[in-house]
Amino acid sequence: MATILVVDDHPTTRLLLRSVLSREGYAVTLAEHGAAALKQLEHHPDTKLLITDLDMPVMDGLELLRRLHTCPVWSQRGVAKLVVSAHPLTEEALAQHGVYACFAKPLDLPRFKRTVREVLTATPTP
User: For the modification 4-aspartylphosphate, which residues carry it (predicted)?
Assistant: First the structure.
C-alpha cells in the first residue's frame, strides 16, 4: 500500500482527498502547509506521492516543490508530485519542479484517481 501526503490549507479539501484516496486503498497523511509537509516527509520516509495545493500560508506549494526538487536528499527519495489548486499555473510551468500533473479545483475525480494510479505504478520502489 503506497503512502500519499496531501498538503492543503483548507481542512475540507484535505479530508475530501484523504477520503477519496483511502477508498482507493492508499495510506494518507496530511499537512496544512509546506513546512508541515517537510516534517511529515521526515516522519514518513515511505511516502511515494505528494499532492499539494499552491496557495498556502507559512510555506506555499511552489516553495515546497522547489525544495523537494532542488535538495539532493529529497530529490533522491523519488517522491512523485501532483498539484491540486485553483492557481492558474500550467503543467509546463510546474514541470520544472518535477510535477507529474496538475489539477484545477474543483477536481475531476475520475481523472485524478487514474493519474494517481498511473504515477504510483510508474514510480519505482527503492
Answer: 53
List the one residue out of 74, 87, 90 whose CA is nearest residue 42.
74
Alpha helices in 6-100 (DSSP H): 11-23, 34-43, 61-70, 72-77, 91-95
Cis preceding linkage at 106, omega within 30: yes
Euclidean distance between the first and final Cα of the chain, in Å?
Answer: 15
Structure pTM? 0.88
Total residues found in the chain within this entry: 126
Phi and psi (nearest 5°) for 87? Answer: -65, 140
Domain ranges (residues) in the chain:
3-122
3-122 has which CATH code? Answer: 3.40.50.2300
Rg of the chain over Cα atoms, rounded to whole angstroms, equals 13
